[in-house]
């Protein structure tokens, strides 16, 4: 897969390069009040390997979520978590899963990375997973950060913009005492394990700029390709 070029030197551009290559990035939830603004470590789901999963577990809470489009989880028959109240402001957690074959207990970095890669693989079937498991899918909102500007949707949008499958592994960075990490904690993690940092607000600005460009191209009569669908302009077979 290839990805469109970002703005040279920007946090977003560096993050997209890293995700495309399978490296982790730090994502700051900066659109909430400061006390609640935690940081997450994000890795493209289709590129995560054992070593990267081990790092993800080591510098975070250890609860690894996988942000994915709701329609993908529906196709895999992974339902919402029982007892969910449907609050649109909260993450849409689904039933945790493991890969059904080729793993052991499901908890190791090797096993969890294999499960995440399978969730990101468009050829995976519902039968490829057992439920419950050790990897926690999140049903990201249609429209990504344009619908809900929080880490799960931002992580999914980042992977898509990086030219990867729109499936992201993410976990909350923590401090030495195990508390949810602030911007300073995320910066410390990124300094110790070199990785680019990007903010949810940057992802939102990027998506809004995309929409503005699309509307401008349509207004000028140029065809635009979005997600494989041609809009406006001259139809092609």
From TrEMBL:
A Pfam family annotated for this UniProt entry: DHBP_synthase
Keyword 4Fe-4S: no
Keyword entries, A-Z: Metal-binding, Riboflavin biosynthesis
InterPro entries: DHBP_synth_RibB-like_a/b_dom (IPR017945), DHBP_synthase_RibB (IPR000422)
Pathway the protein takes part in: Cofactor biosynthesis; riboflavin biosynthesis; 2-hydroxy-3-oxobutyl phosphate from D-ribulose 5-phosphate: step 1/1
EC number assigned by the record: 4.1.99.12
The protein's role, per its UniProt record: Catalyzes the conversion of D-ribulose 5-phosphate to formate and 3,4-dihydroxy-2-butanone 4-phosphate.
Name this polypeptide is given: 3,4-dihydroxy-2-butanone-4-phosphate synthase
């Amino acid at each position: 897969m290839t990805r469109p070029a970002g703005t040279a030197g920007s946090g977003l551009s560096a993050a997209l390069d890293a995700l495309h290559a399978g490296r982790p990035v730090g994502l700051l939830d900066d659109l909430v009040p400061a006390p609640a603004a935690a940081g997450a470590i994000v890795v493209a789901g289709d590129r995560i390997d054992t070593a990267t999963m081990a790092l993800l577990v080591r510098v975070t809470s250890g609860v690894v979520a996988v942000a994915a489009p709701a329609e993908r989880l529906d196709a895999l028959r992974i339902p919402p978590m029982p007892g969910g109240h449907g609050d649109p402001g909260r993450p849409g957690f689904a039933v945790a899963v493991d890969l059904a074959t080729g793993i052991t207990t499901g908890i190791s970095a090797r096993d969890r990375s294999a499960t995440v890669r399978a969730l990101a693989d468009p050829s995976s079937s519902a039968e490829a997973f057992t439920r419950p498991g050790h990897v926690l899918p999140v049903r990201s909102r249609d429209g990504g950060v344009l619908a809900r500007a929080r880490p799960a949707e931002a992580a999914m949008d980042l992977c898509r913009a990086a030219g990867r499958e729109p499936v992201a592994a993410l976990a909350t960075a923590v401090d030495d005492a195990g508390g949810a990490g602030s911007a300073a904690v995320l910066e410390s993690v990124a300094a110790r394990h070199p990785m680019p940092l990007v903010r949810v607000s940057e992802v939102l600005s990027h998506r809004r700029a995309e929409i503005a460009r699309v509307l401008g191209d349509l207004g000028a009569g140029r065809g635009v390709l979005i997600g494989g669908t041609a809009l406006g302009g001259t139809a092609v077979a």
